[in-house]
Amino acid sequence: MPPNFLFLIADDHRHDAIGSLGNPAVHTPTLDALAAAGTALTSAYIMGSTSNAVCMPSRAMLMTGRSLFRVFAPNPEGVSPYPMDPEIPTFPQLLRGAGYRTYGVGKWHNEPEFFARSFDGGGSIFFGGMSDHDAVPLHDFDPDGAYPRESMTVGDGYSTEMFVDRAIQLLRDHPADQPFCIYTAFTSPHDPRTPPAEFAEMYPPEEIELPPNFARMHPFDNGHLHGRDESLAAHPRDPDEVRQHIADYYGMISHLDAHIGRLLDALDASGHAENTIVVYTADHGLAVGQHGLLGKQNVYDHSLRVPLIVRGPGIPAGQRHEGLCYLHDIFPTILDLAGLQAPSECEGASLVPALTGQDAAMRDRVFAAFQRSQDLGCDDSTQRMVRRGDLKLIETCMAGRKHLQLFNLAEDAWETHNLADDPAYAERLATMRRLLDCERQRAGDPDTPGADA
Length: 453
Description:
The chain is α/β, with parallel strands linked by helices. It is built from 11 helices and 18 strands. 26% of the residues lie in helices and 22% in strands. Strands 1, 2, 6, 7, 10, 11, 12, 13 and 14 form a 9-stranded mixed β-sheet that branches. Strands 3-15-16-17-18 form a 5-stranded mixed β-sheet. Helix 4 links the parallel strand 6 and strand 7. The longest helix is centred in the middle third of the chain and has 32 residues. It is globular. It starts with a strand and ends in a 10-residue tail after the last helix.
């Protein structure tokens, strides 16, 4: 029988906010054990966002294997985060068509009709972006796919616990003779960051260390310094206030980790574990004080990079890959692991060769964009990024002015030393600027300057 899939996706979980993958200050024994028993891809990037709600396009790309500017249905006024292109299948939909029973649990920040054709069952479904964790508006699974607002009820419990409870029940009820995919999408550690008391107490704010790239203010206006996420703390940033935000963030992650542990224990008890591939990732990262920012509406690594851990049959234990990849590479990867062919329109690349140790080669570059407007082409603020090897270029345009940042990540992983004006890097800067223009053109960026391929 083909492998089962238990797919776990968090909201706002930064790539290095896991104990064994970069930050021992965060208590994550479940995710540490998952990484030890599987493979961690430590340079996984999202492709950015065309919306302030970064999770919408990120999850759409993950679900469809399409890139940022090709995942949404075209409209006469530009590219919008609504709606997803109805011609594009999702990976659960393709698994479902191949005989899998597919279940959806938790957050779904895209159209309900895509949920309806992706899943055979599920529950505790949240069609939205964010809510209080102890008052999440939920739908039960509707086989007709209607999901009218009047059928919504407020969940009785904490979001993470309710989602895990429903996923555990699905595991227990699933028949042994059919492969499954359980897609469980958490709203944690997204704000409001309100960890239960036991987990809040794990992180006294006065003991929190500020990151090396903490700043009281961002060094220039990137066009989004006063967005919703950035308004969660005072300007300029107060170190003690940021410590409290980080403490709450870590508490949310530890609480999430504990309940993922419950789910993995239930997987073991179900008898399905030996034939189940577990994937843990997130829709984007979060600044939480880095570069004077709090949110994810930017193209620094703290916001673009996400954890990506895969464990299961055929996946080597304890393996780490630093090669570049996109979150939407998961789409063809899951299909490949299931023995299925990805559609020809898929822009993701299967990670199976890297995961299974057949071939460590991965992408040699990644590109990302952020634009605060919901409709591209009507905004004066853009951020674009390209990374190749250890060099990363960010180009920010605001009110007709262009700001360049060049970082050597091998020497400056926290992105604090801008080399754009360093004469020793002048030639490399010119090369990276040409590369950025080419990647914008390749990605279908509607604001692309002319470039030679």
